[in-house]
Design a protein that fits this description.
The protein is 27% helix and 27% strand. By secondary structure, it is of the alpha/beta class. The chain folds into two domains: 159 residues, FAD/NAD(P)-binding domain (3-Layer(bba) Sandwich); 149 residues, 2-Layer Sandwich (D-Amino Acid Oxidase, Chain A, domain 2). The two termini are 23 Å apart.
Amino acid sequence: MSSTLEDADVAVIGAGVIGLAVARAFALEDREVVVLEAESGIGLHTSSRNSEVIHAGIYYPPGSLKAATCVQGRAALYAYCAEREIPHARVGKLIVATSAQEIPVLTALRTSAEANGVHDLVMLSASEVNALEPEVSCAGGLFSPSTGIVDSHALMMALRRDAEARGAQIALSAPVRSGRACDRGVELTAGDAEPAVVRFRLVVNCAGLWAQDVSRRIEGVRASSIPPKYFAKGHYFVMPGRSPFRHLVYPVPVAGGLGTHLTLDLGGQARFGPDVEWVSGVDYAFDDSRAALFYESIRRYYPALEDGVLLPGFTGVRPKITPPGTPAADFIVQGPGEHGVTGLVNLYGIESPGLTSALALADHVRRLAQSWSSV
């Protein structure tokens, strides 16, 4: 980031998939955009350490921002991937009940999904599930044909190219050190060796795991508007060789997440996860000892899983805003009415389905900014 800058238009804090999508949305309106990324590369945290699933919009409460942006974002993402030739596949997903007692959960999921505008789900008997996936043991299933997978790295590169093609600047190794409300927007001090002070008309905080920390550095933000933060670490184990499955397979949801599910990468390899481990900070160390819990959980729907097959894959950390044992919160997108700083948008708790919702969330932020007479 140039130390000669004094006034600018739009700053986006964070170059994950949400920040890049937001930057692209404003750049396409011919606004001057600077993306401030603390790391030395884009998307090094939540955006690249996840299941890379394009979600249909099944799990989220009707009327929530998660539900709306997932359904809208899924359609936009499939179209964008096709247009930009981003590797992706509409592989479909089976949500399986491993006992008869779980069948009502599938029915409830279908009802909730239909309220969200997802009308293509199909209830399946155990034999119908086995016709699709012979290795799955279950009492019944719910099939989502519009669920898919995407290369998250290729997606972020495409978003970056689009933004830069319209003049956006990506400033790496440019952490936001402080900020304050000022007459013409928000003044930020950012950068490593030679921090620059820049006044922006609009600042969008897409810092993900560190969004609350960034907000606390900006003078004028009401402390009461900043939600608490919790970190949910997830491990992924992989199964070498070609997967015996053609679809994604999820057990019914569990507290804290969607269960130890089976996803596929675009090369056809199976990976299992994430589990849920509540941690005090961002730490990507892999705990091999969690394998035993994975085998036990996976064999509920894949009993043929052999001992010793699973290998350590990777970990990711999800930015939670509700504590363990409580339902997942909705996405939070705050404007001045909530936090008190004109020209600032704060995004909190953007976990799953954030990847799917990225384009729709970016449009939501853009429209919110347009509604302010001062921006």
